[in-house]
Design goal:
- The complex is a heterodimer of chains A (about 260) and B (about 170).
- Chain A has nine helices and no strands.
- Chain A is about 65% helix and about 0% strand.
- In chain B, about 25% of the residues lie in helices and about 20% in strands.
- Classes of the chains: A mainly alpha (about 260), B alpha/beta (about 170).
Chain lengths: ~260, ~170
């Protein structure tokens, strides 16, 4: 199917594609919690639309992961019937929404990551991932425009809004380290020309984030070591609650369709 | 009539005709051809028609409906076997909306998208003025980056005070 693609283990590619798909799925599910509770109708539409795009991207990625695995699992089986330890998203995505400012901070950090990642993945040797990246990058670019617009307004807003987003940034910043921490799987994907080097993605992300934070009059927190490994299936307590809600129906009524 | 054997070219042309009748379920003023969603119609070696369909946004619920309508239109046109393939790359862009499609959107009260700009800074930061579809004033403001469907944003005219929708430029 991909003539130029070097031979790599299907299981490795499967796990890597799930990392990408799970990040979108879990973040999309988190954003969905805002529906009906946002500070204004426009923001309700905004976060719902971000969630919709992210879940659309997750569908493409999970479908592909299921095909790579070759055991007959489709997007629904992968989303609804996997346990927490078989989810491979970086744990930043599963962190609670907090106030609207905290949600926006999390969104900016992940939007900028996805933008830099997908821009570089459009020339992946894996044609399917290249196509998904080409489609997703346009949506992600629009997401960052929305989230960074809000971060600038809140950061450069009142004393209260400034203090709140600065403290959300301090809270969430340590989790960004995991996004760029290259492990064996990331290295294998980069060596095979399937994914960009995370060090390159990181350098571009730092530049972009610094510019947004400067405009928002926010201080860049200092990097600290992290002890989380969501990319390997070790999650914070939050993911279990997200999955409990998301998977309830399929667990209670297996194979229910509508 | 049904016994007439059509050439490949005729079947492809008739398929395009049939597809031109498929409306967008959210914006019935435009067809899916106006929006540039059909990327190709070809005939496979076994004679089946192959239709390439691009989604506007990957999570857009209308995509499934459109897929169903495309299949119905091709079935009703009785052109033989066919497959509908999803085309993700090159990714759909609002630049593919045809000139006729832009006019129809405007007449329907939705401002068609700007041609996309290569300059990232302009895409990310610069809000270009969008003219009100009713009074044509450029004294307008963005109410929401997102609207009633994934493809639209919400604006308001400061001159005539009416809200209006803008088809997002991606």
């Amino acid at each position: 199917m991909n003539a130029a693609l070097p031979k790599i283990e299907a299981q490795a590619l499967f796990r890597y594609v799930l990392r990408l798909g799970d990040l979108s799925l879990v973040l999309g599910q988190r954003l969905g919690e805002w529906v009906g509770h946002s500070p204004a109708l426009e923001e309700d539409l905004g976060v719902a639309n971000l969630a919709l795009d992210l879940i659309g991207q997750a569908r493409l990625l999970l479908t592909y992961a299921g095909e790579v695995e070759g055991r007959g699992r489709d997007e629904d089986k992968l989303a609804y019937l996997r346990e927490q330890g078989a989810y491979y998203n970086a744990i930043l995505a599963e962190q609670p929404n907090g106030d609207f400012g905290q949600t926006i901070v999390r969104q900016v950090l992940i939007d900028a990551f996805q933008l830099e990642l997908y821009e570089r993945m459009t020339d992946s040797l894996d044609e399917r991932l290249a196509a998904i990246a080409a489609k997703s990058v346009k949506e992600v670019r629009y997401h960052l425009r929305y989230s960074s617009g809000w971060l600038v307004r809140l950061g450069d807003g009142t004393d209260e809004s400034h203090a709140r987003v600065q403290s959300a940034l301090e809270l969430l910043w340590p989790y960004t380290v995991e996004l760029f921490a290259e492990d064996d799987l990331d290295r294998m994907m980069a060596d095979s020309g399937i994914a960009p080097r995370l060090s390159e993605v990181h350098a571009a992300w730092v530049q972009r984030i610094n510019a947004i934070l400067a405009e928002a009059t926010l201080k860049v927190p200092t990097d600290r070591p992290h002890a989380w490994h969501g990319k390997r299936g070790q999650h914070s307590e939050h993911l279990g609650y997200i999955l409990a809600e998301m998977q309830y129906l399929q667990r209670a009524y297996p194979d229910a369709r509508w | 009539m049904s016994s007439v054997i059509l050439s490949v070219d005729e079947r492809v042309a008739l398929a395009w005709n049939a597809l031109s009748t498929v409306e967008d379920p959210e914006i019935p003023a435009v067809s899916i051809l106006d929006l540039g969603l059909i990327r190709f119609v070809t005939a496979r070696p076994n004679g089946d028609l192959q239709v390439g369909l691009s989604p506007t946004y990957v999570g857009c619920p209308a995509t499934e409906v459109i897929r169903g309508s495309v299949k119905d239109a091709l079935k009703n046109a009785a052109l033989g076997g066919f497959q509908v393939t999803t085309v993700l790359s090159p990714a759909w862009t609002s630049d593919w909306i045809t000139a006729a499609g832009r006019q129809k959107l405007h007449a329907y009260g939705i401002v068609p998208p700007e041609r996309s700009v290569a300059n990232m800074r302009e895409v990310l930061r610069g809000d270009r003025p969008v003219a009100c579809p009713r009074c044509h004033s450029v004294e307008t403001e963005t109410l929401s980056e997102f609207g009633s469907t994934p493809c639209k944003a919400l604006h308001r005219c400061r001159a005539c005070l009416e809200p209006f929708e803008y088809f997002k430029c991606i």
